[in-house]
Design brief:
This protein is of the alpha+beta class. 53% of the residues lie in helices and 19% in strands. Strands 1, 2, 3, 4, 20, 21, 28, 29 and 30 form a 9-stranded antiparallel β-sheet that branches. β2 and β3 (86-93) form a beta hairpin. Pfam families: ACR_tran.
């Protein structure tokens, strides 16, 4: 095939050129995003039920919904949590579930259940979780001084949101911190009492004045008209003119009985930017959009907003594209420095500038053609797929160097240019194909990991397979063709000798080789001893998910654990910010209930999330320490968590499930175990290292009890007292003004007085017009009760979160603890998922090793020689561990990728070396005057000399290309540094030891009887 293609170099060159043009066109259409568009198999159902207790929400809403959803296909887990006025159900599906169909199915079932839910309940929201739900940026909208917050909210909702949604690539715009305008009615109690009237008469007058005639029409000859009542109200002035009839028959304008005005609705949550109230707009991108085009377009739009709306200030924060830009920058840097250093190293070794130029042409060409495979597999350019390309670049350089070195060596042996290109490629073709297959055998099976890890590895595996496949095509077709074209006009006879530099290296190699082969048993024992010693270093390395990144931002999640209002929550958050004034460069906070459509977490008035950006890490650590002390001193009841601000990776990988949770259900009552029984039982738990789950968290509440005896004595209906309590406390909506999709509620103004004063000062009217104090019919008491009601598929449960180091050892103790109290015990958590993932990973790695062995056995036609390659790898792994340990790094995702890169290059070198030894042995044995023993010795020595140059060139170019990252700073360098350290450690120590270990192991593993027979 190589001969056939080289005979037509112009045709091959033009074909590759056309392919590059096509690949460039495709590259411009590929979506660019931060992460692959992974369907996280979770759906959240959110319920908002005003003025409802956790028990009422669980019994009347969540329980019927759970029963209706339990038959969903692929449903693995279902957990619900009911709190005051809010409830959530989290559905977790199997990863093979088609989430588009599951989302439709959930919505259909909730629509069917709507008749069995309370009439006043708004339709439950169904939220589907996806990686594209992670906002790419947040736009802060801050009203200037004396600007109405309601007007800014209308501007954000009706103008800014729509203008941002029109930007290409934007899928959703979400807003938090909006203020709604309502009409409040504040009855004048003195005027009502003087006229013998009640609040109910005012309420009835407003409801009557805002009534509509649905679907009524009149006929006028051949015409038909639909009726509309002219009495409908549109403003506070219209409401004040409504007539109200007094008991004496007098008609009184409502404005004399109540104060009616526009007001901002009481906020259940706020957004703060710095210490100022603001709105935040989160921008989400489409799966097919390019982030590197979306963010600049968003920044341009903000500049226009600043000119168009001078009453508002705009700021772009938490730009997630920084991670992607860092990855693209790292890839560009690797290509740039890789090309520069490869040119320098190749020129030193090869003494000809044309060979580095050939590699310089082949590297970007291979990378560009790889994007064609991205297009056919529907992949986006993201951090995961870019890391896959980075994995393959090392192998790509390796293949190019090996092919060009072999062609050059064939020319030096006297072959013509054409024959040297053909023979040089054919000789290494089988070994290079095997090395690529072994790399894929190690990597591709990871796609079959379950969960998000497997979904992420799919993009990486396809990227690796793409660039390695293209690199083979380039190495076998483009490189020899370019070599032929570049050297075909050369009239100068090639220099037969090696460069002075490589000649010195070769003499050093021969000296060490002679010393090692002179003491074979001792040397082999030392190499074998190095393998476990290198691997033992992993025991002192710490393990983590992502490497420690120098983050200048931090978050504070806080639950005040007190029944405070949103306004008090805001006051406390402002006090926190003021305590750090001057320490941070930027801060924002979501206080209380969040209005985001896609927010799937717990919405509570008592909770807040603060974000801080600091100028340096030292100031950040000092500020976090100060925050910790401030909270413990001033708010000892608060539960808070301080930590680094999560990036997109953290948000994707952070599990919503507890690590190890012990759940119990009361088998008799099917209800939560009461507090008086639960306290003594918890003291008998078999461990002291635990935290209470959501079902054990407490909060203070007030319990109203109606005195039925007095109500009966004074002949006052229970409904009258209930209606009065609902008007006095909470939000009582009289009616709504609806016009063209805009809804303005008319609400009774809530009194700011304490509830005890309201009970003492509010009068209730009996049927005989006599009045009584409301407090005479209502008793109240303070009580601590459970804050949440939690449930799963099996019903209501309570739980503890175990913080023991080895919680699984206590499983039987927890079961016995529950049996003694007639409790059903379930133990769940992320711990079991992690154990399952580890078992899967071990199984997949075993399959990978078997595949690697089978491929090598087929390549070498031997059952023994593949073991030499396998035993070479621990030397590189030990070298990588040693450098990671010396550099103070950890075992993490990036260092693991570095190990794969390094092992791919080492496998390649070992395969080619063994392949060369086998080929030389056959050649030497065919000579009549050479014994099999001597043929083996000569083949081992000569193969080492032949393969020394490409091995050193590959390792040195890779190491030199990566060294600049070690001395770089910033997010990208922090992410890539463990990868670089693993590659450098493995290639320096692993390559140097493998240079001598492979021939030594070959000599020991070659059967001596077979050698004598040969």
């Amino acid at each position: 095939m190589v001969r056939f293609l080289l005979a037509r170099p112009i045709a091959v060159f033009m074909s590759f050129l056309a392919l590059l043009v096509f690949a460039f066109i495709v590259l411009r259409t590929l979506p660019i995003s931060l992460l692959p568009p992974i369907d996280v198999p979770q759906i959240v159902v959110k319920v908002n039920y005003a003025n409802a207790s956790p028990e009422a929400i669980e019994q009347n809403v969540l329980s019927p919904i759970r029963e209706g959803l339990i038959t969903l296909n692929g449903l693995e887990e279902m957990d619900s949590k009911a709190g005051s006025e809010v409830g959530t159900i989290r559905l977790t599906f199997d990863y093979s579930t088609q989430m588009e169909l599951a989302y439709i199915d959930v919505n259909e079932k909730i629509d069917r259940l709507s008749n069995s839910l309370p009439e006043e309940l708004p339709r439950p929201e169904v939220i589907r979780i996806n990686t594209s739900d992670i906002p790419v940026a947040r736009v802060q909208v801050v009203p200037k001084e004396n600007v109405d917050g309601v007007e800014v909210s209308l501007l954000a909702e009706n103008v800014l949101k729509k203008r941002i949604e029109q930007l290409p690539g934007v899928s959703l715009v979400d807003i938090n911190g909006k203020k709604e305008r309502i009409i409040t009615v504040e009855p004048n109690e003195e005027a009502l009492a003087a006229l013998g009237m009640t609040q109910q008469q005012v309420v009835s007058a407003i409801q009557s004045g805002n009534s509509e005639l649905p679907g009524i029409s009149v006929k006028d000859g051949q015409f038909r008209y639909y009726l509309r009542l002219a009495t409908r109200v549109n403003s506070p002035r219209d409401i004040e003119t409504l007539p109200v009839a007094s008991p004496s028959g007098a008609i009184i304008p409502l404005g004399r009985l109540a104060n009616v005005s526009y007001e901002a609705e009481e906020m259940l949550g706020y957004h703060l930017f710095g210490t100022e109230e603001a709105l935040v707009i989160t921008v989400h991108k489409q799966a097919s959009a390019k982030m590197n085009e979306l963010i600049p377009a968003l920044k341009e739009a903000l500049e226009l907003f600043k000119d168009d709306y001078p009453q508002v200030e705009f700021e772009l924060t938490q730009d997630q594209s920084n991670l992607l830009n860092a990855a693209i920058s790292n890839l560009s840097t690797s290509l740039l420095f890789g090309g520069i250093f490869a040119f320098a190293v190749l020129f030193v070794f090869m003494k000809d500038f044309r060979i580095p130029i050939i590699i310089g042409v082949s590297l970007p060409s291979s990378l560009l053609i790889s994007f064609l495979i991205f297009y056919f597999f529907d992949l986006s350019i993201n951090i995961i797929s870019l890391s896959g390309l980075a994995l393959g670049i090392g192998m790509l350089i390796d293949n190019a160097i090996i092919v060009l070195d072999n062609i050059t060596r064939k020319r030096e042996n006297g072959l013509s240019l054409f024959e040297a290109c053909v023979a040089g490629v054919n000789e290494v073709m089988g070994a290079l194909i095997s090395s690529v297959l072994t790399t894929l055998a190690v990597f591709v099976p990871l796609v079959f990991l379950s969960g998000i890890s497997g979904a992420l590895f799919f993009d990486q595996a396809v990227a690796v397979a793409a660039i390695l496949s293209v690199s083979l095509a380039v190495a076998f077709i483009l490189l020899p063709m370019l070599y032929f074209l570049f050297f075909s006009r050369s009239k100068k006879k090639e220099d037969q000798g090696e460069s002075r530099f490589f000649s010195g290296v070769l003499r050093l190699y021969d000296a060490i080789y002679a010393r090692i082969m002179g003491y074979r048993k001792v040397s082999f024992f030392v190499f074998v001893l190095l393998i476990p010693l290198g691997l033992l270093i992993s025991q002192v390395l710490k393990t983590e998910g992502l490497p420690e990144i120098e983050k200048l931002d931090a978050t504070l999640e806080i639950d005040w654990s007190e029944p405070i209002s949103a306004e008090e929550n805001r006051t406390r958050v402002l006090r926190l910010m003021e305590s750090l004034e001057g320490a941070y460069t930027q801060a924002e906070a979501d206080v209380g209930v969040r209005q985001f459509l896609l927010f799937g977490g717990e919405n509570s008035i008592q909770q807040s999330l603060l974000y801080f950006l600091f100028p340096t890490t030292e100031e950040k650590e000092a500020a976090l320490t100060q925050l910790n002390s401030f909270l413990k001193e001033n708010y000892p009841a608060a539960v808070f968590a301080l930590g680094d601000a999560p990036n997109a990776f953290d948000q994707l990988f952070n599990s919503s499930f507890p690590y190890y949770e012990v759940r119990w259900k009361d088998l008799e009552s099917k209800e939560p175990v009461s507090e008086d029984r639960m306290g003594p039982w918890l003291s008998q738990l078999p461990t002291n290292n635990w935290e209470g789950g959501p079902g054990l968290q407490k909060e203070a509440s007030v319990i109203f009890t109606l005195r039925a005896d007095r109500l009966a004595t004074y002949q006052i209906p229970v409904q009258t007292i209930q209606d009065m309590i609902s008007r006095l406390f909470g939000t009582f909506t009289i009616t709504d003004i609806r016009r063209f999709g805009e809804i303005t509620p008319i609400r009774m103004k809530e009194s700011q007085a304490r509830f005890e004063d309201l009970l003492r000062n509010t009068r209730v009217y009996a049927s005989d017009s006599s009045s009584y104090i409301l407090g005479e019919f209502v008793d109240y008491e303070y009580e601590d009760h459970f804050k949440f009601v939690t449930a799963d598929k099996g019903g209501i449960y309570q739980s503890i979160l175990v913080t023991e180091e080895n919680p699984q050892e206590m499983e039987s103790d927890f079961v016995r603890w529950g049996q003694d109290k007639n409790l059903g015990i379930d133990i769940v958590g992320q711990y079991f998922k992690d154990q399952e993932n580890i078992r899967q990973l071990i199984g997949i790695l075993l399959i990978s090793v078997l595949l690697l062995y089978f491929i090598l056995a087929a390549q070498f036609e031997s059952f023994i020689q593949p073991l030499i390659v396998v035993f070479t790898l621990p030397l590189g792994i030990g070298g990588a561990f040693l450098v990671l340990w010396l550099a103070g790094s950890s075992l993490n995702v990036m260092s693991a990728i570095g190990l794969v890169v390094m092992l791919g290059i080492m496998v390649n070198d070992a395969i080619l070396k063994i392949d060369t030894i086998n080929r030389l042995r056959k050649e030497y044995v065919q000579e009549d005057d050479v014994s099999p023993q001597q043929a083996l010795e000569d083949a081992l020595h000569r193969a080492g000399q032949i393969r020394l140059k490409p091995i050193l060139m590959t390792s040195i170019t890779t190491i030199l290309a990566l060294i600049p990252i070690i001395f770089s700073s910033g997010l990208g360098a922090d992410l890539q540094r463990p990868l670089v350290e693993a590659v450098i450690g493995g290639l320096t120590i692993g390559t140097l030891t493998a240079l001598y270990f492979v021939p030594l192991a070959y000599w020991f593993f070659t059967p001596k009887k077979k050698l004598n027979q040969a």
